[in-house]
Every structure is written in C-alpha cells, then in structure tokens.
Amino acid sequence: MTHTPGPWEAQQACIGEHWHVWAPAVGYCPLVADVYGDGTFKTPPENNALLIAAAPELLAALDDTLWQLTRIEAMQGYQECQAEFWLAPVLDVIRRRVSEAIAKARGEK
Length: 109
Description:
The protein has helices at about 45-55, 55-75, 80-105; strands at about 10, 20, 30-35. The chain is mainly alpha-helical. The chain has a 3-stranded antiparallel β-sheet, with helices on one face. A hairpin with a 6-residue loop joins strand 1 (about 10) and strand 2 (about 20).
C-alpha cells in the first residue's frame, strides 16, 4: 500500500470552519483531505486535521519502533554488562521517534 508522501501539514481553510491537510512536498495539487468536525461541535476540526497530518510520521515512528524492537530481541543473548552500551541508544531512538509523532498529532510540534 502506498500513500501520498509526507510530511503533511494542517491548515485552517480560508473560508469556512473546516481544515485542510496538505502535502506540500508533492508539488501538484497537494490536498490530502478536507477535514470537518464531528457535527456535534464537541470535536473541533483542527484536532482531527492535526491527527491526520501526523499520519506519515506516526506510521514511520511505528515502523521504526518495530525494527528497533527486533534489534533488541536479537541482542537478548548479550551479557547484562554489555547491554548498557547498546540498549540505551536503541531505546532513546524509539522514545524520540514516538514522542515526535505524538507531539505532532497533538499539535505540539
């Protein structure tokens, strides 16, 4: 499965209350989605647009997390004293990638 390449950006529409999700790097009609609220006014369309815009980074972070976890599982045979040299950097990468994707989804960039 393929999708429009990221990064995607969320931006309020010039007219109306809805939001757009764009893929500016694409170069041609980069609109990914028009985003509206849930119809009850309890969920602002901005929240949905931010989550949609974070999708490429969320997917990449989760893919990277699985890869890093596979590395950790492959290294389980290492002695505990050696683990401190390789485990901390791997966990730092996982923590950073997932945190960045979550922050973008929440609009905290």
